[in-house]
């Protein structure tokens, strides 16, 4: 494995941009969550790349080694926990491995798999994001001396939420198989909660149990209403 980022000069982090010089790989299938991470990295000085599935993440990691990898355990082609295990055992190891999920029950599994930390979704507080990143980094990659944490709250583009809803609609319209049904349920529940869409989150929670045609119909109706609106929030 080659680390292409090592070819670039290492820039010192500053109080305003505490993650300057870092490269983050976000293994995240939600466009809305990815947009939030992109904005937080941008504000913090870090570069970011995105992989929306395990296959894409493994292709990224075969070419370069990022400073930090943030992994969503619930991915369309498998469990992000398996990727965490692979990265934790790899030599050389990625510097920092973080799991990110709206399901607190995945924290123990992620940490047991080798993750260094855990980001609760939704992660929209810039200060909390920076703090979680910095506490796992070597001292020479952190700003010198004390600094004030940002109080900024990130607001992702609503169009990213629309993209996620269109993705869910495409998966539900053809009466998904049990595996797809389970994936869509956890995906939509997490995205709706992150976007503050309590009505759709409640409907997503009602999808539990394969074959709930009434539940699917309700979710699709709510999605259509949101996609028909100019702004999906």
TrEMBL record:
SUPFAM superfamilies: CheY-like. Coiled coil: none annotated. Pfam families: Response_reg. GO terms for biological process: phosphorelay signal transduction system. The modification 4-aspartylphosphate is found at residue 72. The keyword Phosphoprotein applies. Residues 23-136 form the Response regulatory domain. SMART domains: REC. The keyword Ribosomal protein does not apply. Keywords: Phosphoprotein. It comes from the Bacteria. PANTHER family: RESPONSE REGULATORY DOMAIN-CONTAINING PROTEIN, STRESS RESPONSE REGULATOR PROTEIN 1. This is KDP operon transcriptional regulatory protein KdpE.
């Amino acid at each position: 494995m080659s680390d292409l980022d090592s070819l670039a000069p290492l820039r010192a982090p500053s109080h305003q941009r505490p993650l300057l010089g870092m490269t983050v790989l976000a293994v995240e299938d939600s466009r809305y969550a990815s947009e939030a991470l992109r904005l937080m990295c941008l504000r913090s000085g870090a570069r970011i790349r995105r992989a929306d599935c395990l296959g894409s993440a493994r292709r990224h990691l075969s070419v370069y080694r990022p400073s930090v990898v943030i992994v969503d355990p619930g991915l369309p082609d498998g469990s992000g926990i398996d990727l965490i295990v692979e990265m934790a055992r790899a030599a050389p190891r990625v510097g920092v491995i973080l799991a990110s999920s709206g399901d607190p029950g995945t924290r123990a599994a992620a940490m047991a798999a080798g993750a260094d930390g855990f980001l609760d979704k939704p992660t929209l507080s810039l200060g909390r994001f920076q703090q979680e990143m910095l506490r796992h980094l070597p001292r020479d990659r952190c700003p010198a001396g004390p600094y004030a944490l940002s109080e900024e709250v990130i607001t992702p583009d609503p169009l990213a939420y629309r993209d996620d809803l269109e993705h869910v609609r495409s998966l539900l319209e053809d009466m998904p198989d049990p595996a797809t049904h389970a994936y869509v349920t956890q995906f939509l529940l997490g995205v709706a909660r992150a976007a503050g869409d309590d009505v759709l989150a409640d409907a997503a929670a009602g999808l539990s149990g394969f074959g709930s045609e009434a539940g699917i119909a309700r979710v699709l109706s709510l999605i259509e209403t949101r996609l028909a609106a100019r702004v999906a929030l």
